[in-house]
Amino acid sequence: MNPNITPRQLEIIAAAGELITEDGYAKLTTKRLAARMQFSEAALYRHFASKEDILVKMLELLTASVKERMDAVAERGEQPDMRMKAMFDSHFTYFKAHPEYLMAIFATNFMEPSPVIDDAIKNLMEVMRHHLRSVVSAGQEAGFFTRAIPTDLLVHIVMGTFRLHMLQWRMTGKRTDVKRAGNKLIDAVLTLIAAR
Q1: Domain locations in the chain?
Q2: By the number of CB atoms within 10 A of the CB, which of 5, 80, 143, 152 ranks highest?
Q3: How far, in Å, CA of 49 to CA of 90, rounded?
Q4: Rounded to whole angstroms, how far apart are CA atoms 191 and 19?
């Protein structure tokens, strides 16, 4: 996914992900992470400059995954409505298997403002927006989606709906089936944005 991340860094990210999933980002400390990895904090700092650096790398990995998965969906050449369903099904499947990456997205709620983390999240959102804009625009041109609402506003509405669904899943302790509920939600969104 990302050639700039070493195998050891991936191991550290995985361990950090476990801790974030267990207790949330606020309780992730370099001391706890080093203990989980069974080496010293000094050894941890040879791989990452800070806890913030770990989070940025997680977000970069997530962005690369989103791009790879959305490119694969686009290459299948499905109709716009089916393509949108496939895009979100891919996201729900991914986050169900890797909830630590969802926790990373929402970590900024629990920390001081960080321009580098904000930039990493903006990059992630831009990749998602690019792919979603492509499918919404194609759907409008083909008569699947309404033209009464501008493309960028539809994209904003759909992305906001997705983000709220994922936040609710996280806040309920991931007790619901995020994929099943998410796919029902996307079906409802498709009904709402359908051309009449």
Answers
A1: 54-193
A2: 80
A3: 32
A4: 39
Q: Please choose, from the candidates 109, 129, 127, the residue with its C-alpha nearest in 3D space to the C-alpha of residue 118.
A: 109
> Considering the domain 54-193 in this protein, what is its CATH number?
1.10.357.10
The answer to whether 186 and 84 have CB atoms below 8 angstroms apart is: yes
C-alpha span between 81 and 139 (Å, rounded): 7
Q: How far is CA 182 from CA 158, 159, 161, 165, in A?
A: 12, 12, 10, 7
The secondary structure of the chain as a DSSP string is --TTS-HHHHHHHHHHHHHHHHH-GGG--HHHHHHHHTS-HHHHHTT-S-HHHHHHHHHHHHHHHHHHHHHHHHHT---HHHHHHHHHHHHHHHHHH-HHHHHHHGGGGGS---HHHHHHHHHHHHHHHHHHHHHHHHHHHTTSB-SSS-HHHHHHHHHHHHHHHHHHHHHTTT-S-HHHHHHHHHHHHHHHHB--
How many angstroms separate the CA atoms of 51 and 33, rounded? Answer: 9
